[in-house]
Automatic annotation (TrEMBL):
One of its GO terms (biological process) is Golgi to plasma membrane transport. It comes from the Eukaryota. Component of the exocyst complex involved in the docking of exocytic vesicles with fusion sites on the plasma membrane. Keywords: Exocytosis, Protein transport, Transport. The keyword Protein transport applies. It comes from Deinandra increscens subsp. villosa. This is Exocyst complex component Sec8. Residues 16-150 form the Exocyst complex component Sec8 N-terminal domain. Belongs to the SEC8 family. PANTHER family: EXOCYST COMPLEX COMPONENT 4 (PTHR14146). One of its GO terms (cellular component) is exocyst.
Length: 1051
């Protein structure tokens, strides 16, 4: 900031500022010393220049001074003139004050002379003013009834209550109590007080149940797109043969709540979120001012007088319907009608909820009826989705002509509509979910109103109660609060709402609260004799006392007795049914599965709404009732029903009867005709159904899984018995039980074709070093000679049963593992996405066999079923090998010294081929090609090994005998190659080996020795020695032949 910055220099002479800045600061100090400047000029070489510079600076300063003087000269003149004016005015004021003092003195002398007359006149003027004010008030009060009626017509109820309360207070003033002309006004206001009360109560009632003008109404089911699945409507239409009409939409407002006393539409009202605040016009908008940032008043408060409540509503950010409920409660409080209003709400709560539920169900029933005309073929197509097994299986028939799907449905304790994924379940879940959602919205309003009533009644009680009595009342706050609100509390409303929901659920399940649990009735009778303590009331009760406690708490006097007696008598509080049968295709106890999840969600929502003081009520309510009902009634009944179905399935004569068409090829899909045994297919169907119930009720999945394990255990025992019956006392069954033979079969490369679990499928590794296992197996089987026919399974029906049983057991094992994987992934996803799900409690199964062994899981049962399936395959494979040995053991005892070439194979070869071909034909439709390869794949190795070993027991053989054996091998090769599942190249290679071995008999001994020298590993040493041992006509064997062979192949 420069020294000369504040000087008034004009813009055209701005250069003067720069020139002033160039002046040295030594010229501007307070005490100027000129000596240095004189010395500097005298000692300067250019004295004239220095002097000229000082003159230039002097001219600049003088010019600046001239500008300053010109600028401030006018101001100085005006200041002097103003000061002279001030002095003149002060002088004149002094003179005027002097004259005023003289006039006041004269007025005082005049007024003091007539003081009493002035007081009288003042008092008269005040009296007249008061009279005029009273007359104005009387005139205004006379117009109050008309104004109140006008405000009521305009739905300005709060303003009407304000006017009424103000007018009533005005009439109680001392000056107006004796005015006779106001008696009519008083009577009209008394009547209007009742009209206002019932009008406010009517609006409060309608908004409590979301049927008011500002309610947050729930859209009806028919207003939601695709609210009703096609399966639901189709299944309902298939169970009802009435005439059908075109699909239409229900019109709002057709249904009225008759029991409530007010004509109001159940489905009517505003949009989902109520009226938008943007549609409410504030009167302040007409002033033309910008009111965007000013909170707007709701429409029903536009005509009211501003007060504290109005300002609270202006600043309140609650939803519109909550504001309206708060306004109605405030009106009741101003009318001093909280207790009466609470009593009336209590009286109408149960019948209103009953009527709302009934109307919703009726509306849904009418909506369903509109679909009937359009169902037709589409309904039939939709219902097939529910009957997932029926489908293609209907094409397959039993021998008696009945369909397999029909047999499965007949064994199941529930119809396809009532199945876990059936139309009745989805319809019940959707209907109950919709109704419970409506109840939740209603309860949300009751929480708001109940909380307001309790808070305002407590305030009034404290205001009207002396301080000395506050300590006495502290111990009885709950009863006093309930009396102040007419018995209406949040706990009461929740109890009644859940009680009605319980009645609806009992109707869906075809159960009654009284008959739901016998032990609950005993417990209720026991508890009725003594009053429960506060600690016991705060705890949830066991059993099904929920129903009785609800009715005792909510129905006064004779109403409770009526409900205890099953509601058989007619009375005011007796409710009829809800008519749910008109919506649901079927009702029954099995709907508990579809009811569970909506009730669980309903309980969570209710618990989240409850204030802290009522939080304990959420632990003992509808969910407790339903869980006790499921645990004590539904699960035992389900176990009994499905146990009967399982017993019927496994004890039926057709349960283990192969049912495939012998001419049909095997297919791996059940829907396309996989020949699974009917008994096992039915068990799989029932197990999946029970697991479907477990999925619908996760908390009880432990019990239901144990049921499935029990059923699988009994089925496994029945399968084991059928298997044992088929193989009992047979040599193949005893062989696979030997440790050495079982070890050989486990190392056999053919074991790669055996069934494996889904998680280890196609993981078999064939070891090249195990190629000699078949030789060891063949040698072991050869040691069993002579094999008797009685030790073999000669009945093809038993072989077919073993094949079909193996395939069926494998199907069941795969199905069990698939269900285990589904449940595993389902549990993982449920834990990640749904934290509100209740933990699964492992409750004991009542119907269970005692065992010291730990319980098995489903995976263990799958492993047991698969092991039994493998045993069946092993028996079949060994049986085919034993059949081969049995037929070829004749070869060692026969002398091949034919004198001519035979044209046909030997009889034992023909018999073997016939048996193999026939067994392949009868087994083929019942088992997969890979399993056929395993069953018949061991025949060739045994036959080739037996053919070669037979030479050691022969004494004589000629050239025609060699040709006969070769012809036998060719016939056997053609028969085995005709089986599609057997590797023809492997068969050809093994039987070529046999023919090559017998062809060596045609060689001279010298040529044979030379061949052995070159191919010492083609056959074993013993087999080469057997070539010299057997006598061949026309072949000379030197004496040293064996010694020479010993040099080549030392033994």
């Amino acid at each position: 900031m420069g020294l000369f910055d504040g000087l008034p220099v004009p813009p055209d002479k701005a250069y003067l500022r720069d020139d002033l800045e160039n002046v040295d600061e030594s010229w501007t100090v307070a005490r100027f010393d000129s000596l240095p400047h004189v010395v500097r000029i005298l000692t300067s070489k250019d004295r004239d220049g220095e002097i000229q510079a000082l003159k230039d600076q002097s001219d600049i300063v003088e010019e600046v001074v001239d500008e300053v003087v010109q600028t401030y000269h006018g101001g100085f003149n005006r200041a002097i003139q103003n000061y002279s004016q001030i002095l003149r005015l002060f002088s004149e004021s002094t003179q005027s004050v002097g004259k005023l003092k003289v006039d006041l003195g004269n007025a005082k002398r005049v007024i003091s002379a007539r003081n009493k007359q002035l007081q009288q006149l003042w008092y008269r003027s005040m009296t007249l003013r008061h009279i005029i004010s009273l007359l104005d008030q009387i005139e205004n009060i006379a117009q109050v009834p008309t104004r109140i009626n006008k405000l009521i017509d305009e739905n300005q109820l709060y303003a009407a209550v304000q006017v009424h309360v103000q007018s009533a207070r005005m009439l109680e003033r001392e000056g107006l109590q004796t005015v006779g002309a106001l008696q009519d006004v008083r009577s009209e206001l008394a009547k209007l007080r009742g009209v206002l009360f019932y009008k406010v109560l009517e609006d409060l009632h309608s908004h409590l149940y979301n049927t008011g003008e500002y309610s947050s109404a729930t859209p009806s089911m028919n207003e939601k797109d695709d609210a009703i699945p096609t399966t639901t409507v189709a299944a309902f239409a298939m169970n009802n043969s009435q005439s059908l009409s075109r699909r239409t939409r229900l019109v709002k407002g057709d249904n009225h709540v008759g029991a409530s006393g007010f004509a109001s539409s159940v489905d009517g009202g505003s949009s989902y979120d109520g009226h938008d605040d943007d549609d409410i016009h504030d009167g302040a908008d007409n002033t033309g001012k910008d009111t965007k940032n000013i909170p707007r008043l709701p429409a029903w408060l536009l005509e009211c007088t501003p007060d504290e409540f109005v300002e609270t509503m202006r600043k309140n950010e609650s939803p519109l319907h909550v504001k309206y409920l708060q306004t109605m409660v405030e009106c009741l409080c101003m009318l001093d009608k909280l207790a009466v209003a609470g009593a009336i709400i209590c009286q109408r709560l149960r019948p209103t909820i009953h009527e709302i539920i009934t109307s919703k169900i009726k509306a849904q029933a009418e909506y369903v009826n509109t679909f009937r005309s359009g169902v037709g073929h589409a309904a039939q197509t939709a219902t097939t989705g529910l009957q997932y097994v029926k489908g293609q299986l209907q094409k397959e028939k039993h021998k008696n002509g009945t369909s397999l799907a029909g047999s499965l449905m007949a064994v199941s304790p529930v119809t396809p509509v009532m199945a876990p994924m059936g139309a009745a379940q989805s319809a019940a879940k959707e209907l109950l979910g919709f109704i419970l959602d409506t109840i939740v919205r209603i309860f949300e309003n009751h929480v708001v109103v109940g909380d307001l009533l309790e808070s305002k009644s407590s305030k009034q009680a404290h205001m009207n109660t002396p301080k000395s009595m506050v300590g006495q009342m502290s111990g009885n706050l709950d009863s006093e609060a309930s009396q102040a609100t007419g018995g209406y509390t949040i706990g009461f409303s929740m109890t009644v709402l859940q009680s009605e929901c319980q009645q609806l659920i009992c109707e869906l399940l075809r159960a009654t609260p009284e008959a739901a649990s016998a032990d609950a009735a005993v417990q209720t009778a026991r508890l009725a004799s003594k009053a429960p303590s506060k600690e016991k009331r705060d705890k949830s009760e066991d059993g099904l006392t929920f129903a009785f406690r609800f009715t005792d708490a909510t129905v006064p006097n004779q109403g409770a007795d009526l409900i205890r007696h099953g509601r058989n008598r007619k009375g005011q509080n007796v409710q009829e049914g809800y008519g749910s049968a008109s919506v649901l295709p079927e009702q029954g106890i099995y709907l508990a599965a579809s009811v569970y999840r909506p009730v669980l969600q309903f309980t969570d929502k209710i618990a989240s709404m409850l204030p802290q003081k009522y939080s304990q009520l959420g632990n003992d309510g509808l969910l407790t009732f339903l869980e006790n009902f499921i645990k004590d009634h539904f699960l035992p009944a389900m176990f009994v029903d499905y146990r009967k179905g399982v017993q019927q399935a496994i004890s039926s004569p057709a349960a283990f009867r192969p049912r495939a068409n012998p001419t049909a090829a095997y297919t791996p899909s059940v829907s396309k005709g996989r020949p699974v045994l009917q008994g096992l297919l039915t068990i799989d169907f029932l197990a999946k159904e029970v697991l479907g119930w477990a999925q619908a009720m996760p908390k009880f999945s432990g019990d239901l899984v144990k049921y499935v394990q029990t059923f699988l255990e009994r089925t496994y025992e029945r399968c084991r018995a059928s298997y044992t019956e088929a193989v009992l006392e047979k040599q193949s069954y005893m062989l696979i039980g030997r440790h050495d033979f079982e070890n050989l079969m486990r190392h056999d490369p053919a074991s790669a074709f055996l069934p494996t679990s889904l998680s280890h499928a196609n993981n078999h590794i064939v070891d090249a070093e195990t190629d000699g296992v078949d030789l060891e197996v063949s040698a072991l089987l050869m040691k069993l000679r002579p094999i008797k026919q009685e030790s073999l399974i000669r009945d093809n029906n038993k072989l077919v049963l073993l094949a079909s049983l193996s395939d069926s057991l494998e199907y069941i094992a795969d199905s069990i593992e698939r269900q285990v994987l589904i449940s595993l992934f389902g549990n993982l996803s449920a834990k990640a996405s749904d934290q509100t799900e209740i933990e699964v409690k492992q409750t004991p199964v009542h119907h269970k066999r005692n065992s010291s062994l730990p319980p098995k899981d489903l995976a263990s049962f799958a492993e047991d079923y698969r092991k039994l399936a493998i045993d069946c395959l092993k028996v079949l494979r060994v049986e085919m090998q034993l059949e081969t040995v049995f037929n070829m053991q004749v070869m060692a005892t026969r002398e091949y010294l034919d004198d001519q070439d035979a044209e046909e194979p030997d009889d034992y070869i023909i018999s073997l081929i016939t048996h193999i071909t026939r067994r392949d034909e009868v087994i083929a439709p019942f088992i997969a090609p890979t399993k056929r390869n395993y069953i018949f794949g061991g025949i060739c190795a045994v036959a080739s090994h037996a053919s070669i070993k037979a030479l050691a027991e022969m004494k004589h053989i000629n050239l025609f005998g060699v040709q006969q054996i070769c012809r036998n091998t060719i016939a056997l090769e053609q028969a085995l190659s005709a089986i599609p599942s057997i590797d023809s190249e492997s068969v050809q290679m093994r039987l070529d080996h046999v023919r090559k071995y017998y062809d060596l008999l045609n060689m001279p001994v010298e040529a044979l020795l030379a061949f052995i020298t070159e191919h010492d590993r083609l056959f074993t040493a013993t087999e080469y020695y057997n070539l010299l041992k057997v006598e061949v006509p026309g072949r000379e064997v030197p004496e040293d032949a064996k010694a020479r062979m010993a040099d080549i192949l030392p033994i």
